[in-house]
Amino acid sequence: MPIRPFNLPDDLQIMVEILPMMFQYPENENWNVQSDEMENLVDTVKGVKRIWPLIRLLQLVIPPLRDVLRGYIWEEDSSPVGLVNVIRSGSSDVWIIGNVGTLPEFRRRGIARKLVQAGINYIQERGGKTAWLEVVSGNLPAFTLYESMGFEHYSGSVELSFSSEQEIHPPTKIVDYSTEKLDRSSWRVRYDLERSITPEIVSKYNPVEEGRFKQPALLRFFTPLIQSAMGVSAGSAAISSNTNGAVVGRTQFSVRKRPGGVNNISARLDPAHGELAPFMIQYLLHNVIQMSPGRRISLGLPQWQEHLINAALVAGFEKRTEQDTMGMVI
């Protein structure tokens, strides 16, 4: 059979080798995987391989972790030419389909369709209720493929890029709001905010379930070790109204602790408090550059977070790519 399920941890190396070639787009080089992104991926794979015995142990006692690194590989003459990942979102019934692709010379042969269908079948077997994926806006062949398989275009996202060579001053404190760092047990803060601001159409395919946010205590305990093995440090903060104590925004970052790579940030903001967007972007930039200077900063935001997108552009971010988000009820 040309298609087979992942064999881990051995197939992690295959991902490192073929992903850069899978995501090369002669029609638009901006879509290509960047070199600093590959440095992140390589370090992640090496880290996972390094602590694989621990991951296997955690999978035995935390069943949802068994669905974190699943997928299928397509082989021709015993060589991998394409793959797909399927990932359960926490312990929820929501699944993400990612890294769908084939090497350029094997495109237009129906391989991607068969890989995605294998992923959908696996999600059904595991009791998943919804699945979503992203496709680069303008990639009509991929968009049409997913549409023909029953996926609906319901939202989108934008990736913005910032050169950390620019000088960033500390953000000016906003009157009537407070910022507080969140620890790994503060999942309900993130859950409640996401539930209150997520558009209804998004919730249809990516429901705001507790299982997406709540981590088992044992996993929280080992998270620093896992992050260290992957060469990153992560954190988040909540922004609250001093009037009623309600959380109206949150920030999140993952910064590199080794040479090379890219720093990643994200945020969510209640649209009713759009005036906070410039502060949140400035807060993230200043802290990330202080912690991990000299690297590009990548910011991913859903298109419905317009205040944050506009604030990022004003702060000096450049729009790199846009993605169409497509979902399916299994």
What can you tell me about this protein's structure?
The protein has 330 residues and is of the alpha+beta class. The chain has 2 domains: 155 residues, Aminopeptidase (3-Layer(aba) Sandwich), CATH 3.40.630.30; 161 residues, Aminopeptidase, CATH 3.40.630. The chain has 10 helices and 12 strands. α1 packs antiparallel against α2 and α2 crosses α8. It is globular. The mean pLDDT is 93.
Count the beta strands: 12
Sequence of secondary-structure elements:
EHHHEEEHEHEEHHHEEEHEHE
Structural class: alpha+beta
* Strand percent estimate: 25-35%
Architecture blueprint of SSEs:
Layout: E1 3-5, H1 11-22, H2 35-50, H3 52-61, E2 70-76, E3 79-88, E4 94-102, H4 111-125, E5 130-136, H5 140-148, E6 152-162, E7 177-182, H6 187-197, H7 200-205, H8 217-229, E8 232-241, E9 247-256, E10 263-269, H9 277-291, E11 297-302, H10 306-315, E12 318-329
Parallel strand pairs: 4-5, 10-11
Antiparallel strand pairs: 1-2, 2-3, 3-4, 5-12, 6-11, 6-12, 7-8, 8-9, 9-10
List keywords for this structure.
alpha+beta; twelve-stranded mixed sheet; 330 residues; single chain; globular; Aminopeptidase
What's a quick, concise take on this entry?
The chain is of the alpha+beta class and 330 residues long. It is 35% helix and 30% strand.
